[in-house]
Amino acid sequence: MKIFSGKNYRDLASEICKKLNEGDNCELSLKIEKFSDGEILPIFEKSVRYEDVFFINGTTSSDSIMETLLVADAAKRAGCNSFTLVAPYQGYSRQDKTDHLRSSIGSKVLADILEKVGVSRIITIDLHASAIQGFYNIPVIHLNGNKIFTQYIKKLNIDNLCIVAPDQGAVKRASDISKAFPSASFAMINKKRTKPNEVHSMELVGDVQGKNVIIVDDMADTLGTLKKASELIVKNGALSVRAIATHGVLSGNAMKNLTDSKLDDLIVSNTINGLIGKENEKLKIVSCAKLIADSIQAITQKRSIHEVNEIK
Predict the structure, then answer these.
(1) Longest distance between any two alpha carbons in the chain, whole Å
(2) Which domain holds residue 271?
(3) Is 140 found in the same domain as 6?
(4) Which of the residues 7, 76, 172, 191 is marked catalytic?
(5) How far apart are CA 267 and CA 246, in angstroms?
(6) pTM tops 0.70, yes or no
(7) Are 117 and 103 contained in the same domain?
(8) Closest CA relative to residue 72, chosen from 39, 106, 30, 37
(9) Residue 29 has pLDDT above 70, yes or no
(10) Cα–Cα distances in Å, from 223 out to 82, 179, 252, 259?
(11) Same domain, yes or no, for 129 and 179?
(12) Tens digits of residue pLDDT in 135-184
């Protein structure tokens, strides 16, 4: 086994290697050159022949996608036994269907090109739509992001806990984390959108009076939804409001929305590069390294991934 990383994921890859005690097999110095015209050239400086290669990288930007494709091609041409893409945050996962006439299905396009270039397996965390796994004809190890946060929440020792799903799509995810907190109550928000990143209306379904609320979602983008949701929940009598989101996209006015919101804390994972160092009074970051390391270990030891994903 050899573990490599893209240019932007070396900190996370190093942490994963430490969890695996695989320092000697972590070639984090994979050479990735970039020419003045923008072209990318990856070079393996040591042999990967007959090795199981794990490549840790995001697929959010055009550069990161091209980097991944070229590294996969280089590894296959160098004779690797298998090539596993570890994409903590799989880009284009919000484009899982055609919401508009004559639009693309970005997640299907990404699946096709990753397969075509020779990716053997994908490890990812909390796809925005789990049905995206069906776009692939290769194994997709879909890790449960809730595992990252359960121990963190338990250490907070919160009384009168209420788990809230911020929309219909998050109900399964929110109910899943409830397994770790049997005494917690449950509520959800019925949300209507007019267009992406813009919410038209919200209504709370359930009782949050006198509760300490945790909103559970897969992604925190502009935080417009979480800002409005926190205001609605406080208005309905909640004592405190926190939010957990696996992927801290934090684009646009996200940080201002967080500051202006009724949220006590926003807790995200480091699945997206660039979050380290951004922690502040309201933004907390929990590492996903152990979850990924455990899944890599299970694969190499031919054990079930189920025990890695199970919420306890």
Answers:
(1) 61
(2) 146-287
(3) yes
(4) 191
(5) 8
(6) yes
(7) yes
(8) 30
(9) no
(10) 39, 26, 9, 10
(11) no
(12) 999 999 999 999 999 999 999 999 999 999 998 888 999 999 998 999 99
